[in-house]
Every structure is written in C-alpha cells, then in structure tokens.
Amino acid sequence: MNRPLSIDSIQKIVIKVGTRLITYETGKLNLNIIEKIVREIADLKNQGKDIVLVSSGAVGGGIGRLGLKRKPVSIQEKQAVAAIGQGLLIHFYEKLFSEYGHIVAQILMTREDLDNRKRYINSRNTFLHLLKFGAIPIVNENDTISTEEIEFGDNDKLSALVATLIDADLLIILTDIDALYTANPRLDPNASSISFVEVIDENIKKAAGNTEEEMAKGGMITKLEAAEIVMASGIDMVIANGNHNNIIKRILSGEETGTYFCSKQSHLRSRKRWIAFAQKIKGSIYVDRGAEKALKGEGKSLLPIGITKIEGLFSKGETVSIYNARGKEIARGLVNYSAEELNLIIGYKSADIKNILGYQGEKEVIHRDNLVLC
C-alpha cells in the first residue's frame, strides 16, 4: 500500500532517537550516527520545517562517561548518572547544530508536566514559541528527578505525547532495527518485516515482544504503544533504522522503508487526547451492560446506577479507567467523585445522591464531555 506522505504537506515533525541507536554497548556516544541525524534535521530546518528531537541516551552517556560496567540499579544512582549524561548529550547536540547555524533548546519533562492541565497547556505554549523562534527543542525525560510515580517509563511514549501536544503531522522513531517484524528477527530467522499498519491488534502486539537490551528501557512494544497514541490523535508514525543513510529524507519522500502506521481519519481533539493519554490512571470503575451500552452506543454520561464496583484510591477530578462486565477497558474519564464518595452511591439513582452524601453533587459520575472511549 502506498504511503500517504508528502513532504510538502508535512510541517511539524517529531523525531525520536533511541539509546541503542546513539550509544555503543560501552555507553559512549555514537558520534557518527548523531552527526548524520543532526545533518538531516538541519536540512529540514533549512526547508522551513518545524522539528522537535526527542533524544534518549542520557543514562547511557553517563555510564560511558563514568566508565561503569553496567546500568545502575537504584533510583539515586540512575538519577546521578543521568545528570552527568544529560549535560554530555546536550553539549554535543548544541555543538553540532550550531555548525549548521541552528539554535537548540533543552526541555526535560516528567509526567507531572502533562498530568496537570495547566502545566500541559504551559508546556504546549513553550514548545510552540520555541518553534516560532526557529529553535530545535531537544526533549528528554528528566531522569535526574524522575521516580516511578512521575516517570513516563520510556521515551517512545514521551515522543508520542509530545507529538500530540504540538499537533505534529508525523512522528518518526529511529531505532537500530529496520522495521516491525512478525517475530523477533534476532531470534527467528523466518521473521518478516511489516511495512504498513492500520490497526494495532493482539497479533501485532505479540510480534513486538520485549526489549533484551541492557541500556534501553523500551523495545518494540513501547513503540506500538506510542503508535496507538498518535494514530488515535490523527498523527502518522514511522519506525525505521537510523543507521541507514538519509533515512529521514527517504521516509519523507514516501520510500517504503521501515514500518508506516497510518493515523485514523476520525481522531481525538486536544482535550480528549489529554484525558486519554497524558493523564495517569488513578483507579478503575466497573459497569454493567446497560451502562456500557449507554456509554458506547448512545454517547451518554456515566451515572452511579450503572456502576458495579470500583478499585483504587482516587480524588475528584482524577482520571479513571472504565471496564465492562467482562473486564475489558472501554473508556477513560475525569471522575466527579472521590473513591470514598463513589463507594457510597454505587448502584443508586442520581436523585438519591443528596440524601446519601448530604449535599447535591453532580448527577453524572463522569460527564460525557470528560470521557473518552477506548
């Protein structure tokens, strides 16, 4: 199938480079690959394109700089190593891009920057103004302060969230393998590449497997999770081998290289994207068949009478997942009640809320405007 890519119609591009691509097994930076990527991005900037670079490699670079034999285990060690590696990484990017006459800006993010709606909008405004000034934002997770509670988990997801944040036209994930395969090509000689994906189903996810690399966080499965985010947001994505010469130019020319993920024509708007992808899920709500039909078939709000049970501790305004009677996630949304309050009104009509809680709260547990179907 032909790829509906045209360099003339693409203005905003997010490019993500992985640790395995830009560092050696020793942790030292692969300057040859970094220089090639910088040159291609500089050329795109010369054409007037807006580029955001999401770059891994801080922890790997720190390991190499310190001469460590393996990746640190404790959070404190990882944070310290990342602090050393991040300075090294941005130093090389700034030096190389300046040789082509371009300005870079470092942006380090944690999940809290996107979890909070106000900070989400502030982050978007910062990115858009940097692009307006002609700068190249270079983004990484802020590993120096990130803990399990506030980390993205990998830069694949971060790159997807950044792409949705700025309304990018295309996300390119450059790694050290040629494409998505039907199986792990390092283990299965019969594995074949998949060039075009319209729907990410269970068979596609099974083919992805998990990462086996010491330095890297993600693997192909996290790239598929990134693809799910951008495809639902109306953004195309390509996974390709960053070791190949002129790989970005070849992708934008429509050449069939790597794996192309085609976005959905009917996609989520900005606020719905924030609810569906940028928010951290704080709990679960299970509903009966009647409520499922009302949500999915009729586009209605979630009422307390249709809820069968809840899990987790969450506060009013936080994001929860909604599951049907079979345990399948069917939606996500911003809840109008805390878990404690919701436990008291489960199964009751909205008209009973005042008598139960002692005050007149919202009649909807989750209003349809704050709900996104999966």
Description of the molecule:
The chain has 374 residues and is α/β, with parallel strands linked by helices. It folds into 2 domains: 12-272, Carbamate kinase, CATH 3.40.1160; 280-373, PUA domain (Archaeosine Trna-guanine Transglycosylase, Chain: A, domain 4, Roll), CATH 2.30.130.10. The protein has 14 helices and 15 strands. The chain has helices at residues 19-22, 31-46, 58-66, 75-99, 112-115, 117-132, 155-165, 202-208, 220-232, 247-252, 270-278, 289-296, 339-345, 353-357; strands at residues 12-17, 50-55, 104-109, 136-141, 170-175, 180-181, 193-194, 196-197, 236-241, 259-261, 281-287, 307-311, 319-323, 329-334, 371-373. The strands form 3 sheets. The chain has an 8-stranded mixed beta sheet with strand order 3-4-2-1-5-9-10-8, with helices on both faces. A 5-stranded mixed beta sheet has the order 12-11-13-14-15, with helices on both faces. Strands 6-7 form a two-stranded antiparallel sheet. Strand 13 and strand 14 form a beta hairpin. Helix 3 packs across helix 4 and helix 7 packs parallel to helix 9 (220-232). The longest helix is centred in the first third of the chain and has 25 residues, at 75-99. It is globular and about 70 Å long.
